[in-house]
């Protein structure tokens, strides 16, 4: 969470920083700010609210600087306000710093500084770290670089920090541990960012900075060192991403664009991997750890949020097809509960961003205990991808909307491939089922396109009918249960309507008490082995006057007749069906959020990349 940008070069820094912050706003939008080195002084501008509020407050000022840093904040320590916005000045005003992460021992550092007479203008852990660095610099009479190195040895927590020093007009000092930092190499210029999107317009050559590395960045020089002051050769990589991928392309919101991109993104996830004609699956990551997978006592899937829902569905699919025990864990619980891990465990980490702090630490811990890590990650070069022993990228392209849509379906596509591949290697799947599932998987992009083409207007109308509801219940069974959870999560995230996902049969054990004529109940009721059972559950809701909205398979007259509203998807094998049934639920949430006048791309209190625990 929080987005950071930096620029050193010969062009005006301010527009580059503002443009970069807008691209990173998905990481947090509580406040925004920039610090600029004018050659003589450090100027800080910051404002509570989105980047546009910062722009307005700076409008008309003549900002001449070719070096600067910028920050968009997701608040951790201290409420969203101008005062707590980054960048912060050090006590002397000679340093300015931005920070993404959490300094866990900030209270200890703060009390030491308070004893020395320091006072603080903000409530942030970041201002404490900055003054701690400055205190070391003054007391040791050393360079900023040296002071950062010394300070970071005492810091507990996660950080990316970028610092400007009044005495170093052409330099940014940067360091990272646990939060992401990418440096783009331009023509006598360098661009810094939490991800590569702010620099895409200027360069495709980037260096991903690792934990415990410190960068000294000047227009024509990038020096990388470890905390022991030894130089490291920067590893320059080429970005495989186009600028258009991070723009709205005529859609009102990124979320809508990303929902409509899914025929292509699912196709991209399958491309080069699933050969529907030869019925083969090529997944080099699975091949690399095939011996581990064959010998595995169990697979543990760790993830958070929407990615956890993808993991939950994978549990059903892998257990069914591969006959391997699967446990699905919330990364935040798994990392703290001293789980029993051995070198026979394979951990699958599922993450869009590849930077989610809980997932990252969970796999770090498991790796130390000998487990093999398989990463299913969207962002290329991200921390989870780099920590994994093997993996498969999801190829969904940049996901900017805070609520995950195309990344989820890409995760599912890859998880299906993994399950089919492992089942084939293990010999636990009949040829006929393997052929049917791979053929159906290959049809998904076309079927998703059909849903988008035929259902969009219908779903808009359903959304209009229920936009004022106070609560929603989402029910599903079997493979569709994780989709009920995902549908509920999507709705609450972007419409702020309370929504609960539940296994349809479990509803009788409590949630049914909520049902009355005002409660819309969304059933994920595509044709599957539980169909008759879910029809009974629909009857139970109808008997209590609940409003039933159902996702149904084409031609299902039974549920269509029972439900108040239906959203239809093509008929496909029940194991693959969730890839289709989630699409109407994404659209339903989107249109309800829009009808309620909300900023669906940037829902309140959320951030895209949760790099704090
Ligand atoms: C929901 C959503 C979040 C993320 C979660 C994990 O729409 O986006 O629940 O799924 O924060 O993030 P990643 O997948 O980046 O690890």
From TrEMBL:
Any one of the GO BP annotations: carbohydrate metabolic process
Keyword field contains Transferase: yes
Top-level class of the enzyme under EC nomenclature: transferase
GO CC annotation terms, alphabetical: cytosol
Gene3D superfamilies hit by this protein: Glucose-6-phosphate isomerase like protein, domain 1, Glutamine Phosphoribosylpyrophosphate, subunit 1, domain 1
Quaternary structure, from the entry: Homodimer.
Protein name, per record: Glutamine--fructose-6-phosphate aminotransferase [isomerizing]
Organismal lineage: Bacteria, Pseudomonadati, Bacteroidota, Sphingobacteriia, Sphingobacteriales
